[in-house]
Amino acid sequence: MSRNEQEMKDLLRALTLCAGAPGAEDEVRALIRENLEGVGELSYDGLGSILCERSGGADSPRVLIDGHMDEVGFMVQSITKEGLVNFVPLGGWWAHVLLSQRVDIITSDGKVPGVIGSTPPHFLSAKKREQLLELEDMYIDIGATSDEAAAGMGIQIGDTIVPHAEFTELKDPDILSSKAFDNRAGIALMVETLLEFSSREHPNTIIGVGAAQEEIGCRGAVTASEKASPDVGIVLEGTPADDIPGFTEPQAILGKGPQIRFYDPTAISNRRLAELVAEIASEAEIEIQMAVRRSGGTDAKSIHLHRGGVPTVVIGVPARYIHSHVSLIHWQDYLNTARLVCELVARLDSAAVENLTDFG
Question: Strand, coil or helix: what is 219?
Fold first, then answer.
């Protein structure tokens, strides 16, 4: 990689700390634009996805490198007379991870901090302590005493809400903690790939995509693919790590390298493309992990079904505790994913891509 590690880490930090709930990815999009200005031709789809097209040694194949900009968040549904904020989820949340957590409500006047309310155990019966509170029964306390006071803070119905978190190195500096590694890790890797090839030859045209609204149905990948018209797709993700208690055969272990996802219920990676990635990883001495998932999904859902079909592969940085306020990744996994993606892009010439769909 042409950029040093500190530059790469600074970009990842900045992206994770951006607010970017589905449909409100403005901060993320602005940071992508700032970093890719002049690298390629920038454009946007009607949902707010950003595309950066960089021509190389040939007009085709057209290589789409996708990361989704949005993170799981919430939206203000209503404000009670007491000034409490009711909300709906944007993306998949497990209620267990939410009580007493800090959030930021994104208003037209700026960010308003709040806390998801919880009842102290002193006021709970033994039975209630064992029950899981449903999301629709939760609220956000912003310190207002009335709906008028909340309105005076700028809170309006429809405002988006994101977790409030910090970017931290743990005692082992290779273990990084922040919100939104799903999928700011993928976005950062997409940007790093474009920056790498701004000064390196490539036998194709690269279209980097920061897709909108993945967490609520992979929507931006549909419209961005229509603009990008790809011949091959690489989906970059912060993929859920399963090296935690309760999993006997983990396929996403921190520190064991990038994950190549063969299957989830929304997409099957092109087998030849997945095998090519594994071959390149072996040649580059990059340890990888293979995964077949029973649940979940990525933007590959939309990309691989574009028009007549697009050979697509999903490459992920394992991240523990995604879809929460705090997730963990291993810095060496991130760096090795960056190396692997760049070597893959460098190999995707016309002959290599045509072979992926040579079914005759």
Answer: helix
Residues facing 161 on adjacent strands:
74, 105
Name the burial class of residue 346, with classes exposed (0-12), middle (13-18) and buried (19+) by CB atoms within 10 angstroms of its CB.
middle
Structure confidence by residue, pLDDT tens digits, 178-235: 999 999 999 999 999 999 999 999 999 999 999 999 999 999 999 999 999 999 999 9
- CB count within 10 Å of CB 38 equals 7
Choosing from 71, 214, 215, 237, the catalytic residue is 214
Residue 231: partners with Cβ closer than 8 Å, 6 or more residues away:
60, 61, 62, 63, 310, 353
> φ, ψ for residue 14 (rounded to 5)?
-60, -40
Reduce the DSSP state of residue 163 to 3 states and report it: strand
Q: Are the beta carbons of 47 and 213 closer than 8 angstroms? A: yes
First CA to last CA across the chain, in angstroms?
A: 38
Distances (CA, A) of 279 to 273, 274, 284, 286, 337: 10, 9, 9, 10, 14
What is the C-alpha separation between 360 and 119, in angstroms, rounded? 64
348 with 206: CB under 8 angstroms?
no
The verdict on pTM exceeding 0.85 is yes
Average pLDDT estimate for 240-260 = 95
Long-range (24+ apart) CB contacts under 8 A made by 248-251 are 251/289, 251/290, 251/291, 251/292, 251/293
Domains located in the chain, CATH noted? 5-71+179-356 (3.40.630.10), 73-163 (2.40.30.40)
Q: Is 25 assigned a catalytic role?
A: no
3-state secondary structure (DSSP) of residue 12: helix
